[in-house]
Structures are given as C-alpha cells and as structure tokens.
Amino acid sequence: MKILVGLVLFLIALIISTFLAKPIYRDHIQRDLTEKVSAILIEHDLDPSGIEVQGHHLTEIGALPAGEAAREELLNDLDGVIGLYVDLDVESAPVLLPPHFRLAEQADDSVILSGVIRDESERSYLVNLAGTPIKAGGKPRTVIDKLELSSEVAAIEPREKLSALTPALFTTAEKAYVNWSPSELEIGGMIDSEGDQEPLVRIAGGLAVEEVAFANKLQVEPYRDLDFGLERKDGVIVVRGLLPNRQTQTSLLNLVKAQAKDTQVIDKTTLAVRSKDAWWAKNPQSFLPSFLSSTEGPAYVHYFSNRFVAKGTFPNKSDYSVAQKRIAKLPKKIKREAKLDFLTNPEPAVAVVPVTPAVIPGAPTLPGTPAEPVAQPEEAKEPAMAVAVVEPATPALPAGDPAEAAGLVQALKPLAVYFNSSSSYIKTTENKKIEEAARLILASKNVTQELTVGGYADLRGNAKYNRSLSLQRANAVRDRLIAKGVPASRLTVNHFGEDTSQTSRKNLWKSRRVEISLAPAAPAAPAAE
In the chain, what is the straight-line distance between the N-terminal and C-terminal CA atoms, in Å? Predict the structure, then answer.
C-alpha cells in the first residue's frame, strides 16, 4: 500500500512540476530569442524595441529597412537563429517613397508626363490636369503620357493644391513645369514679371509635404517684339534683328546670302528667349529678294513690330512700281516709311543747249573761266585676285578738229567714274564727273568721233558676274550722259570685266570704274591727182 501511495504522489509531483516548468522554459526561450534578434537589428541600425516573440516564433520586429536588398540581407542574418522568422511577415510594413513625377510644357504647347505614380486613378488625374487649356474655354492640350506605375510609392497628396497650382502655372508661365521628386518639389518656367511669381510660389510652397523641400526655378523674361532688317552700304550687307528661333534665323540669312551674290554678309541678328508673333514672319521671303536684286547702291529695309522702313534707288520705274505695290499690300495697321526713288532716262534733247566753253588741260584758258577741280574717288579696302583681261580695239572714225579732239581726250582722262563693290549705283560725287564730261563733250562742237563708255570690275569674285557688272556700270554712265544731252548715237558701250592692272588690296577701288574716251580718228584720205 505504501508503494502505491508513493507512486501516486510521484506522478502527482511530476505532473505539477511539468506544468510549472513549461512557463519557466518558455520565458527563457523568449528572452534568449529576443536578445539574439536585438543584436542583429542593432547591427542593421534598426530599433529593437518593436520585437515580439510568441512561443518559439518571432512575429514582429518593428520597422523594416526601406530597400528590398536591405530587407533580404536582414533575413539572411536572421536565418542563423532557428525558427525565428517562421511567422515573420517582412513585407507587411514597406516604407513607401513619395510620388515622383514631372509635368513639363513643350515648345508646341503639349505637356509631357513622366515619372512613377501609384495607380491608374492617379494617371487619369495627372493626364486631365496636364491637359488644362492655355486659355479658359480653349481646347484641351495634347498630353504625352510616359508615366510608370509602382506600389512602392505613396499616393499624391494633397491633390487639391496640386490641382490649383498646375493650371495657374501653365497659364502664367511659358515652358512651365512641375517636378516632384522624393526630396524636392520644383516649379519652373518663364514669366513676364516679378508680380506673376508670388501667387505661384505661395501655392507651391503649401503643396510640398514635410519631407519634401520646395524650389522656385521661375525666370522673369518678358515677351519681346521681333524685328528683322538689312542695310547694304560700302560693299557689305549688315543684317540685324531679334528673331524667334535658330530655324528662322538660318532661313532669313540664307535668303539674303542668295541675293547678295559676291557681297559680304555680316550677321548681327540675335535670338529672343520669349517673343511675340511677328506680322512680317512670311513677308521677307516675298519682298527681300526683289528689293536686293532690283535696287542699286545703298539700300535699307527693316521690319519692326508696328512699322516698315525701306530706302533705296531703282534703275528703272518698273522695278520701283513693283516695290511700291508690294509695300501697299502690307497690313493697314503698319506704319510705312518708304523713301524709294528711281533713275530717270529722258529722251535726248533736240534743241541746241548753250554750254560753257570747256576747260581743257594744256589749252589756253578764256578770261573769266575758272578752273574746276576734279573729284577724287573714295578708297575701299577689299581682298584681291588676278584674272587676265584683253581689251578690244575701237574702230577709227573720221576726225573733226584734231587739236580740239586731242584736248578733249586729255580732259576726259581724270573723269573716270568709280563705284562701290558689287554696285552699279552712281554716287553723288561721281555724278558730278558725268556732268562735267557731258559739258566738255557738248562744248567740243568740232569733234565728230564717237565716244566709248567702257566698264570695269575689280579682280574679286566670279569672272562672269564681274563682266556683267562692268556692263551694268557702263550702261548706267551712258544713260546719265544721254540725260545730260549727249546724243545716244555718239555713245558706244563696252564692258571689259575684270581689270588686271590693279592687284593690291588698297588699290582695288581703281578697278571699279567706267572710262569715257574718244574713239581714235581715221587717217585722212589721200588727195585726188
């Protein structure tokens, strides 16, 4: 009996000790696991205060690392403790990045969307926001959607402030953009004045969340009026103006260079950051080529925002009339300041015009007749080339008074007419020489030979063009002589092209000339026996 009672007591004691030992052992295991997990979390710079252990299992460790690679590394370290993470959900509390996206206005007024957002509802929201018309009641703008979706970013908040900022920014600034990155909210674009900036900055500053800094990249750049023009003077063409873009600049300069031929073109145009629409945008293509090719000498044409200015001389009335008609077709609101002229070519006078006796070097001067100085040519600075030219012989004609003819030959030599580079326009100083030559010719009543009006060009540029230019110069002088009363029947035009006698740069101006010379007399016929 005693043995039976002892056995029963032993069993009871064993059962009691078993129930008492389990909590003690469990507490020991939990303390041991907690210490080990804490050590691992501390190594990963994580807070160990969030650890929870139930039985043999780790069920919570608090905040997890932000990146996927960091979480994987943590799990590998916890792998060394058996059974610790059986019930651990490491994906249960991911750290979401702020949304990062960009709404940027392009040159064609479309808006491009890029970046990473949370879901399709946010995509629809941003697309509608970006399509806001530039003007109230206008058509929605084109939206280029390059957004990507990710569950690792937070939702866009607060939406109501972004909905207020974007339309205000896009309607106030040109090339505007909103750039929302994980660390910064940035707005940019070009605005007219400092006053336009303050309301945009106020809205954007309230939109940035606590972790995101605000950056204002707005630039004050007012709209500017465009202009374009050129001046041809002293052998060069200078182009000036404020143009909207590189394409327009290239197009207009090519247009001028195509008409300039061998004339040097100097580009002094600039580009506007923000420009207004120009009324003349398509007009230069229709007016400039004819203006450059049909005028002679100095010329000036300029398109401004509210006016048009042109100055030039045309060789004939028909070209002058065409230019006037084109100017008349300009918009009525544009002020026109056109000072255009053309050279008159009247018929030769029939009546005999009294003239003053000629002053001929070497001949006796009549009492009371003053000697008149001969105008000197202006010197031009231009590069030189060398091309051979052969001058044709002039046929001999019957002579009148040999002594008077010899005096006229000498008097005409210093009256060569000089021209600017690539020009057949007769300058005022040179016109005086033509007047003097006409006076001498008409005064020499006993000289019956024909006169040669010969044109030359300098050695630069294309030989074919220079020969044509020398003819234009000769014709221009011939027309002026006829206008002064010299009979057309006595004038023969000749053009010799390039002059090879002058090759140095400083003397090239001497080649750009027209000479008025007397044809040599034919020998006297033998007397009849």
Answer: 200
Residues 139 and 214 in one domain: yes
- Rounded to 5°, the CA angle 298-302-307 comes to 135
Closest to 462 in 3D by CA, of 391, 385, 383, 390: 385
Residues paired with residue 335 on neighbouring β-strands, in sequence order: 307
- The number of beta carbons lying within 10 Å of the beta carbon of residue 95 is 12
Task: For 215-262, write each residue's pLDDT tens digit.
Answer: 999 999 888 899 999 999 888 999 999 998 898 899 899 989 888 877
User: Is 442 part of any domain?
Assistant: yes
Tell me the CATH number at 433.
3.30.1330.60
More confident residue, 235 or 173: 173
Task: Give domain status of residue 394, yes or no.
Answer: no
Task: Identify the residue whose tokens are 């207020």.
Answer: 164
Q: Please state whether the predicted TM-score (pTM) of the whole model is above 0.90.
A: no
Tokens found for residue 220: 């004050």
CATH of the domain at 144: 3.40.1520.20
Structural domain includes residue 20: no
Look at residues 93, 108, 143 and tell me which one is the last residue of a structural domain: 93
pLDDT at 304 over 90: yes
110 and 67 part of one domain: no
Domain count, the chain: 4
pLDDT band at 518 (very low <50, low <70, confident <90, very high): confident
Does 245 lie in the same domain as 331? yes
Residues 215 and 252 in one domain: no
Contacts from 388-395 at CB under 8 Å and sequence distance 24+? 388/500, 389/496, 389/497, 389/498, 389/499, 389/500, 391/454, 391/496, 392/494, 392/496, 394/452, 394/492, 394/494, 394/517, 394/519, 394/520, 395/519
Question: 158 preceded by cis ω (within 30°)?
Answer: yes
The answer as to whether 431 is a domain residue is: yes
- CB contact burial 250-277 (16+ within 10 A = b; e otherwise): eebbebbeebbeebebeeebeebeebee
Pairing between strand 184-191 and 236-243? unpaired
Please tell me whether residues 72 and 105 are part of one structural domain. Answer: no
Q: Is the Cβ–Cβ distance between 176 and 187 less than 8 Å?
A: yes
Whether 10 shows a pLDDT value over 80: the answer reads: no
Q: 335 or 398, which is more confident?
A: 335
At 268, list the tokens: 């002094």
Beta partners for 397?
521
Q: Which domain holds residue 215?
A: 100-220
Where do the DSSP E strands lie in 192-343?
213-220, 227-233, 236-243, 264-271, 296-303, 307-314, 335-342
**Distance from C-alpha of 11 to C-alpha of 374, rounded to nearest angstrom:** 150
Pairing of strands 451-457, 227-233: unpaired
In this structure, the answer to whether residues 107 and 208 fall within a common structural domain is yes
188 and 234 share one domain = no
